Amino acid sequence: MFKEFPNLRQHDDSYRRLFFDDFFDLYAWYDQEGGRMIGFQLVYDKRGYQRSLTWTESEGYRHNKIDEGERAGTSKMTPILVPDGVFDAISVSERFERDTAGLDREIYLMVSGKLAEFDALKVRKYP
Length: 127
Prior knowledge:
alpha+beta
């Protein structure tokens, strides 16, 4: 079940919300508070091989892994996103469908729709 992080720091030019559970973090981006959703980032497998799918109106889809910034013999650096291979849209979609309690309907519809669209694009792109 998703819970919303209550006091997310905001930026002047947009509005964002953060939802989380044991497996996912979901950032939803809006053009303004109470406005239109313009993108999201779905971080998944947080305790395993952590990756993210990002979609924005302006840039489309990106799939990344999260480099935690840990290097032997050095202090921990800031985590960064780096390109990752194939996104398993079906498995992530199935897990997302099971865990959607606690999400606003608008966010659920946007994310689940974009996950399905990504999978359909993959099939057309790579027959």
